[in-house]
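Students often ask why we bother encoding 3D structure as a string. The short answer is that it lets us treat folding as translation between two languages. Here is a chain of 206 residues written in the first language.
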Amino acid sequence: MNKEASQVEKSARDRASAEEAKYRQDILELENEISGFLRPGLGSLLKGPIGDITLYKHTVKITGENPATIPLAGLTATFRSDPTYMIDLTEPGSRTHRARYPIRREAGDETTPFFTAEQLSDFALEIVNAAADESDFRAYRDARLPNARKELETAKSNNAARDEAFENLRDVCAWQKSNPRRKEALAKLEAERRRWQRLTGKMPPR
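And here it is in the second language, the structure alphabet:
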């Protein structure tokens, strides 16, 4: 009787825990999605550093004399090779940042990073493509964000299954406490435990 009652209670408790976990997971996924739209940060590292420039999923970081963190949306990158190698990063408002690179490796200097014209030209193209991806991301974000917010409100109020599972658990626990057969079984168990204690001097576990 006691074992069967414990199994019924465990089943109700497991169901309540599973519904609570699902409820929280649905909310957490939407909250993380919305947070990723509103606060994307640098994003994952895509390439670099290539000289003073490091390319991330949502931004470009430039170090050197005038360090800056530049959003990728609307950014253009242009490689120039005259009179020296350079990459110009131009923001939508026309503010331009420039990174310079040596046109040849100095004799005997094998430690300073050196990039060929082809490598720098390819890197500038990667920045342009990353900027296009960022524009696509922002367009998707603007279209998706209102729906994600509505879905979050719906998920928060969609607690019927969770509440039903917890109500069932409360009912099971209440029934177990008031069940005459369970009370009788527990009384018999307690009497046997005390008889055993009188015989052995030790109280056995329940």
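Translate back mentally: The helical segments are 2-38, 117-157, 160-178, 180-200. Keep this in mind for the problem set.
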